[in-house]
Amino acid sequence: MKNIRVGLLGIGTVGGGTFEVLRRNQDEIRRRAGSGIVITAVADLNVERARSIVGDDVQVVSDARQIIANPDIDVVIELIGGYGIARELVLEAIAAGKHVVTANKALLAVHGTEIFHAAAQKGVIVAYEAAVAGGIPIIKALREGLAANRIDWVAGIINGTTNFILSEMRDKGLSFAEVLTEAQRLGYAEADPTFDIEGVDAAHKITLMSAIAFGIPVQFDKAYVEGITQLHRPDIRYAEQLGYRIKLLGIAKRTAQGIELRVHPSLIPAKRLIASVEGAMNAVVVHGDAVGTTLHYGKGAGAEPTASAVIADLVDIARLQGADAVHQVPALAFQASSLTAASDNLPVLPMDDIVTGYYLRARVADEAGVLATITRILADAGISVDAMLQRESDEVSEFSENAPHKAQTDLIILTHDTREGTLNQALTQIQQLPSVLAPIVRIRKEELN
Amino acid sequence: MKNIRVGLLGIGTVGGGTFEVLRRNQDEIRRRAGSGIVITAVADLNVERARSIVGDDVQVVSDARQIIANPDIDVVIELIGGYGIARELVLEAIAAGKHVVTANKALLAVHGTEIFHAAAQKGVIVAYEAAVAGGIPIIKALREGLAANRIDWVAGIINGTTNFILSEMRDKGLSFAEVLTEAQRLGYAEADPTFDIEGVDAAHKITLMSAIAFGIPVQFDKAYVEGITQLHRPDIRYAEQLGYRIKLLGIAKRTAQGIELRVHPSLIPAKRLIASVEGAMNAVVVHGDAVGTTLHYGKGAGAEPTASAVIADLVDIARLQGADAVHQVPALAFQASSLTAASDNLPVLPMDDIVTGYYLRARVADEAGVLATITRILADAGISVDAMLQRESDEVSEFSENAPHKAQTDLIILTHDTREGTLNQALTQIQQLPSVLAPIVRIRKEELN
């Protein structure tokens, strides 16, 4: 079979890795794909750098549209990033009848509906394994490997930067700010880390997984997004003492009422395999009604792990490109005609309607009756307590980020599953008690079983 | 699109699970596959039981060949097991132009070359996700998701029965025989557990994974197979003290000399994620040159987890069946014309040529000079010691399975990577020393990093 000719838009870290792996493993890949896969043209604003990477046998241009217009190109890889020019180029490539491979989670989470619709109309493939969890073939697992299942929930550590920061905070007892600086120095966090530490990147990824898990459109605007910037050392320690670890999870869960779609720090039982995922590694847990729990672990970022996913998509396209649209794997796992509209019976739920357990920490005056008052408010709201921990001022001072006060104590409560709206009402009451000296810390808890 | 009509050969545990999941999730599966997937006929020697499971709308016959001969059937699921009649029926189904889905690892590990060749000639698909690691979509991950990679090695806990036994031996300090009895009572081990505990089942599975990882034929006859029946409690304890756990691993590794293909108990560092895989769960670690290390975890057996894999194959077939053979995913991951023959430069190596670390335990007389003599023999053979542990008779007696002898001590040595042939020669020398009182225990050690 003739070679698949690929045009690469943007040759930065991942683009360079993709070029290198395709060249290094070209024989292996040809033996798998049945045809060679060759990058024949590269577009990058920095033509000189691009030329230095790809050598003289590959066309290098500064204008991506020259590649899209080239009738010899079968597949376009978009590695530019962002929502702006990347969206235009992807839509133009589709219009030109090219298959598209992209690692751009932000683009697909926000404009996926438009892009997948355009691709379906044109009968081309838009593949995006690299957009979620780097080298882990989780899109393929959800879309094909677990296709027999009614997926109940997906929960993942899908941002390496924040997992690195949380691992370091726990291991070394450092504050968020201290570890962030260190992570930036080591290259684990970007100069502007906002998308990572505020949970936006994880939200893009869980939005994509929610779509293919449940057959709903991508709805990034409905996702609840909370990062790790407000996490404090004492809570990491208290969680540990209670048998939990704190991880930033992306969660998509199907309930009778609709879909929970949320990113936030979560307590998870230390004995779960995913609790031991440390450093910049990623892992996604999927629970299906037939298969039960599966876990998929690997590197979530980096040049070659991401290239591994980009090239897997190219191999899929090489295998499928002669097949008509009906025989292709649908971009969002479910046939386009079978996607459940946002307005149907699977709405993304407001956060008040989610149900989960909670970790609460109240810094209270060390005086009689406080505990009784707080547990009474919880009981009256129908919130049942799973575990409790009290740490006196001496112990508190060891952890305290502010100057300790002798008459203070930390009260830590784990609740059983509770509707978040109900919890919020109870917390408002508790917060107003004169004995409660600081804003109550509230972290959600996922049992993942 | 019209429904895919499936004939099921053998409706035991997995067959029943497949029927149930296909029925329960029929809407979900149709939305994914683009066409309905319906079991229209079942063959089972026990017609009455089959009828009680599938009801009146499904044809039930006792003769599997009636299903193979039925021109209305698109796909045959073989869940009979074994090498005999199953092989005949699979070959006949292929000859009749049916796609085949099977969970029969034994059949494919032994007769795979013949079967895949027949399928390629006929242009039909033989799919076998359920044959390895139950519900974990590891065949798809290796064959498609990681297609960009030169796979360096695959190592897996791929037999739930033995992992359950090892977990229990460690947790409860019980002997192999005690736990086996308990496992049989709980249904985790079969009445005749030979295939599981002797490593044969794991060897079938790692043989299949070696083929798709490296593009070589299935060569079960070349696999080294060692089970867990000779494992003793003290070694599990000593391994723990050295920071390792003992797991039965299936290992396929590419070296410059060829392929290592082996199943045996292995020490693995306790801090690796796979070391925490407990009970009857399975996990496969894959190392690719681009992606690095990935881990795939889930239930390795049971009616519905296995059904999940069987049905994923059916969905793949539904999506691909209109595509011609060129566009199908090749059964062994590499195009049939690109498989490396057994006689080529990737031979399966004899065990003398594998290179790994070792755990050694010698029960020796507690007298001066023994340690010096043993370490001298190792040093002369060029075998370097990574760690050492000596346990005096008092401690030994705590673990000892036989009556302790006061003048005995246990000497435990971890070696660095060593060629097995070299080690064996040194062990022969050590074993002949008069101070060595019992056969030396030798367990291989895998760092998996």
When the domains of chain A are counted, the total is 3
Low-pLDDT runs of 5+ residues of chain A are 395-400
Number of strands of chain A: 17
Q: How many helices of chain A does DSSP assign? A: 16
Radius of gyration of chain A: 24 Å
pLDDT average of chain A, as an integer?
Answer: 92
Choose one word for the global shape of chain A. Answer: elongated
The third-level CATH topology of the largest domain in chain A is Rossmann fold
The CATH superfamily of the largest domain in chain A turns out to be NAD(P)-binding Rossmann-like Domain
CATH class of the largest domain in chain A: Alpha Beta
EC number (chains A, B): 1.1.1.3
Protein name (chains A, B): Homoserine dehydrogenase
Family (chains A, B): Belongs to the homoserine dehydrogenase family.
Keywords (chains A, B): Amino-acid biosynthesis, Methionine biosynthesis, NADP, Oxidoreductase, Threonine biosynthesis
How would you describe this structure to a colleague?
Two copies of one chain form a homodimer. Chain A has 449 residues and is α/β, with parallel strands linked by helices. Chain A folds into three domains: 4-137 and 303-338, 3-Layer(aba) Sandwich (Rossmann fold), CATH 3.40.50.720; 138-299, Dihydrodipicolinate Reductase, domain 2; 351-445, Alpha-Beta Plaits. Helices cover 38% and strands 24% of the residues of chain A. The first copy, chain A, has helices at 13-24, 26-33, 47-54, 64-68, 85-95, 105-122, 138-145, 160-172, 176-186, 194-197, 200-214, 233-241, 303-320, 370-380, 393-399, 420-431, and strands at residues 4-9, 37-43, 59-61, 75-78, 99-102, 126-127, 151-157, 224-225, 244-254, 259-269, 281-288, 292-299, 355-365, 385-391, 408-415, 418-419, 441-445. In chain A, the strands form two sheets. In chain A, strands 7, 8, 9, 10, 11, 12, 13, 14, 15, 16 and 17 form an eleven-stranded mixed sheet that branches. The first copy, chain A, has a six-stranded parallel sheet with strand order 3-2-1-4-5-6, with helices on both faces. Chain A is elongated, with a radius of gyration of 24 Å. The two termini of chain A are 47 Å apart. Chains A and B meet through helix 1, helix 2, helix 7, strand 12 and helix 13 of A and helix 1, helix 2, helix 7, strand 12 and helix 13 of B.
